[in-house]
Automatic annotation (TrEMBL):
<dbReference type="Pfam" id="PF14520">
    <property type="entry name" value="HHH_5"/>
</dbReference>
<dbReference type="InterPro" id="IPR004013">
    <property type="entry name" value="PHP_dom"/>
</dbReference>
<protein>
    <submittedName>
        <fullName>DNA polymerase/3'-5' exonuclease PolX</fullName>
    </submittedName>
</protein>
<keyword id="KW-0548">Nucleotidyltransferase</keyword>
<dbReference type="Pfam" id="PF02811">
    <property type="entry name" value="PHP"/>
</dbReference>
<dbReference type="Pfam" id="PF14791">
    <property type="entry name" value="DNA_pol_B_thumb"/>
</dbReference>
<keyword id="KW-0378">Hydrolase</keyword>
<dbReference type="InterPro" id="IPR016195">
    <property type="entry name" value="Pol/histidinol_Pase-like"/>
</dbReference>
<dbReference type="InterPro" id="IPR043519">
    <property type="entry name" value="NT_sf"/>
</dbReference>
<dbReference type="GO" id="GO:0004527">
    <property type="term" value="F:exonuclease activity"/>
</dbReference>
<dbReference type="InterPro" id="IPR029398">
    <property type="entry name" value="PolB_thumb"/>
</dbReference>
<dbReference type="InterPro" id="IPR002054">
    <property type="entry name" value="DNA-dir_DNA_pol_X"/>
</dbReference>
<dbReference type="InterPro" id="IPR027421">
    <property type="entry name" value="DNA_pol_lamdba_lyase_dom_sf"/>
</dbReference>
<keyword id="KW-0808">Transferase</keyword>
<dbReference type="InterPro" id="IPR003141">
    <property type="entry name" value="Pol/His_phosphatase_N"/>
</dbReference>
<keyword id="KW-0540">Nuclease</keyword>
<feature type="domain" description="Polymerase/histidinol phosphatase N-terminal">
    <location>
        <begin position="335"/>
        <end position="414"/>
    </location>
</feature>
Length: 576
């Protein structure tokens, strides 16, 4: 377990204790321990004895040690067994905390969403102390939305479901080749369902195994060439499996990768050659169906270079890929300059993040913990930031194969000022600026905030520029055309935040940025080592935007990236 996971476990224990009705002092002890542990700048590995930290008592220290040594907590497990699991579903509803859920449980015996719904319909909620008619009405509204599936789900959610599907498919015998297809393979931001193409030796044997996979909730269709199942993963998710021969695999995969607009363009190219494309191959004028050993060979048949799946959007790809057009690839990435450590709200130490970046073969990274305004993320004040700069300098002396830049993710404040003075910013190597608050402000107010950052000689990058969370939050009111124009004029880079919950900027805006010549960075915003892997998702979105290697700052050598950092600064403050 990393420190962030231990903190989450302590907070969960506090929640369960509150649901159980334990005394407030005991509940507060676990919440306080979580806060103390989170605010300590050391990682779990670096902490010799958590019990020595002020605010962590003997009991909570023992729980932390158990979590650290075993990855489990006997106390948490016993509470989970004792408290009805359905109470956590109620707790997930907006506008209700653990104290009120505890009251519902004790006073009315409510244990799940359905019993809560029934109590609301019978008017029982309003009779409880601390509730009332308004609370009951708000709960009714929340219950109406609960469990209703949006037509399309965020890619972050569907990627997790896809991982479960693929783990199950690895145990299915008789599959020669398999691939994602549809909107997931194109890396669309939202998805309706999941599609897979399977090359199989015996369809009947494979079909029988598919419908019996543990993850399958229901079987929708069980045909010779198509099996459709439904999964239950918080929402009902439909998964289509296309079963084909190995010879048909490439053309079937192309057909079901889409998009519809891309397939129309390809059919037009085929028609010009007197041919027809189907999911099983290409039919020529004599009626012969031609199959291909790979998608590369399929595209070559029409005089095209390979079109990556992400780029198959029916835009201009059949023109662009008539000649070699090398898009950026994950192998081109040399660095990542948006990530967090235990100094703010990350899970591991600076050194542990550096080690993880070294394993990826990176030449450079930047540590960019949160600034002081974001107190919920344990943001750094001036004194702590200066200490972190010294720590980064110390760590740099330990390595000769990677350089660590000292940075900050600085808040652009609601009053259109920045969280740190220029005097402080001048001592940093990398400054990225972000909006994390007051999203309801007018466009003029948002633009004034962005303008402050754009004009500042020390700000190198605007991070997650629209503030959106896919499927959950629209973001703030920003004219992205304006932002990109000003970014170009001020030589400020814009970010594609590779966290699959964000993907901000979108591929459409990245294309616009590239046309304007704006500097673009793909950053992971990693809070733990494994989320550095989100770089692959970010690169896929960059490929969707038809970006080449030289258009991303992350592909720059250490020396070239250092020159970029110097370029915006005043001459007297040039980077050393």
């Amino acid at each position: 377990m990393d420190k962030k996971q231990v903190v989450e476990a302590l907070e969960m224990i506090a929640t369960y204790l509150e649901l159980k009705g334990e005394n407030t002092f005991k509940v507060a002890a676990y919440r306080r321990a979580a806060q103390v542990l989170e605010r300590d700048e050391r990682s779990l590995k670096e902490l010799d004895d958590p019990g020595k930290l002020k605010g962590i008592g003997k009991g909570t220290s023992q729980v932390i040690q158990e979590l650290r040594e075993t990855g489990k907590s006997s106390l948490l497990e016993s509470l989970q067994a004792e408290i009805p699991a359905g109470l956590m579903d109620i707790l997930a509803l907006p506008g209700i905390g653990s104290k009120k859920v505890a009251t519902l449980y004790k006073k009315l015996g409510i244990t799940d969403v359905e019993s809560l719904r029934e109590a609301c319909e019978q008017g029982k909620i309003r009779t409880l102390p601390g509730f009332g008619v308004k609370t009951e009405e708000k709960l009714k509204e929340a219950l109406e939305e609960h469990g209703s599936r949006p037509e399309r789900l965020p890619i972050s959610f569907m990627l997790e479901v896809a991982e479960k599907v693929e783990q199950s498919l690895r145990h299915v015998e008789g599959i020669i080749k398999m691939s994602r297809a549809g909107s997931l393979r194109r890396m669309e931001e939202t998805l309706k369902d999941l599609d897979y193409v399977l090359a199989v030796t015996n369809p009947d044997i494979v079909r029988e195994q598919l419908i019996k996979m543990d993850i399958v909730h229901d079987v929708i269709a069980d045909g010779q060439t198509k099996v459709t199942v439904e999964l239950e993963s918080g929402y009902k998710i439909q998964v289509d499996f296309r079963l084909v021969s190995e010879e048909q695999f490439a053309t079937t995969l192309h057909h079901f990768t889409g998009s519809k607009e891309h397939n129309v363009q390809m059919r037009q190219l085929a028609k010009a050659q007197g041919e027809k494309i189907s999911e099983y191959g290409v039919e020529n004028e004599s009626g012969e169906v031609i199959t291909f050993p790979s998608e590369e060979a399929f595209f070559h048949h029409f005089g095209l270079k390979f079109i990556p799946p992400e780029a198959r959007m029916g835009m201009k790809e059949t023109e662009v890929f008539q000649t070699s057009y090398p898009l950026v690839s994950i192998q081109d990435i040399r660095g990542d300059f948006h990530m967090h450590t235990t100094w703010s709200d990350g899970a591991v130490s600076i050194e542990e993040m550096v080690e993880s970046a070294r394993k990826k073969g990176y030449e450079w990274i930047a540590i960019t913990d949160h600034s002081k305004f974001l107190q919920v993320a344990n943001g750094l004040n001036e004194e702590r930031l200066m200490r972190q700069i010294e720590e980064i300098r110390r760590i740099n002396d330990l390595y000769d194969d990677i350089h660590v830049f000292a940075g900050i993710e600085m808040d652009i404040l609601p009053d259109a000022t920045l969280d740190f003075s220029d005097e402080i910013l001048a001592q940093l190597d990398v400054v990225i600026a972000s909006i994390h608050s007051s999203f309801s402000q007018s466009q003029d107010q948002i633009h004034a905030r962005l303008e402050t950052a754009l004009q500042n000689p020390y700000v190198h990058l605007i991070a997650h520029p629209t503030g959106r969370i896919i499927g959950r939050r629209e973001g703030y009111d920003v004219d992205v055309d304006y932002l990109l124009k000003r970014a170009k004029e001020t030589n400020t880079a814009v970010e594609l935040n590779a966290n699959p919950n964000r993907l901000d900027l979108s591929a459409t805006w990245l294309q616009k940025a590239s046309e304007l010549g704006v500097n673009i960075a793909v950053n992971t915003d990693a809070h733990r080592p494994e989320t550095l892997d989100h770089m692959e998702i970010g690169v896929s979105i960059a490929r969707k935007a038809l970006l080449k290697k030289e258009q991303l700052l992350n592909t720059f050598t250490y020396e070239d990236f250092k020159k970029f950092l110097q370029k915006k600064r005043r001459k007297e403050d040039s980077y050393e």
